[in-house]
Amino acid sequence: MSSYKRIMLAVDLTEESKAVADRATALVEASGAELHLVHVIEPLSLAYGGDVPMDLSSVQEQIQEQAKSHLSEFASQLKVPAEQQHLIFGRPESEIQRVADEVGADLIVVGSHGRHGLALLLGSTANGVLHGAMCDVLAVRVGIAD
Ligand code: AMP
Q1: Domains, the chain, ranges and CATH?
Q2: Cα separation of the two ends of the chain
Q3: Is the CB–ligand 1 distance for residue 92 below 6 Å?
Q4: 21, exposed or middle or buried, with CB in 10 Å at 0-12, 13-18, 19+?
Q5: Is 16 in the pocket of ligand 1 (CB under 6 A)?
Q6: Which of these, 2, 59, 95, 140, is most buried using a 10 Å CB contact count?
Q7: Is the CB of 124 under 6 A from ligand 1?
Q8: How far is residue 122's CA from residue 115's CA, in Å, rounded to a whole number?
């Protein structure tokens, strides 16, 4: 089997992203693949619909600015150049797949939490990505607390 050429690493920019990134960089070192980073900002209007009776645009702007600087800081640690960083609005599952397709990624790396009970039924980003992905998906177990 040939090795991966383009890896899309999806980061939610939480503490756990580092552990997920470690797996991706190990694969990059072994394969010589090009590493891309994606972070998806969920618009507040998508999360809350019309339920919040106030203008959320300045909060949204702050979230966006913060995400932008966190992503570029994270990317510089991994030595991922600007053109391989993707900051996108929308629903994480579908946008991770879309940007992976767009750049021709042959592997998507996501974190995956051990889930029980209701959370298991509700699913996760990793599940959502796996179900629609056109390429391989590596789900890195993070934050396991049993
Ligand atoms: P979850 O189990 O739904 O919290 O998602 C876990 C993993 O999904 C994270 O470790 C990331 O790889 C990916 N993920 C979740 N949210 C985002 C996001 N907003 N942008 C990019 N990747 C995300």
Answers
A1: 6-141 (3.40.50.620)
A2: 36
A3: yes
A4: buried
A5: yes
A6: 95
A7: yes
A8: 10
Residue with the two structure tokens 């991706």: 24
C-alpha pair distances (Å), 96 with each of 45, 51, 63, 100, 125 = 19, 27, 19, 6, 9
Q: Decide: helix, strand or coil at residue 37.
A: strand
Determine the atom of ligand 1 nearest the C-alpha atom of 17.
10
- The pTM (predicted TM-score) of the whole model is 0.91
Per-residue pLDDT tens digits of the chain, which is 146 residues long: 679 999 999 999 999 999 999 999 999 999 999 999 999 998 887 777 666 777 778 888 899 999 999 999 999 999 999 999 999 999 999 999 999 999 999 999 999 987 766 666 556 899 899 988 999 999 999 876 54
Ligand 1: which atom is nearest the Cα of residue 38? 21
3-state secondary structure of 46: helix
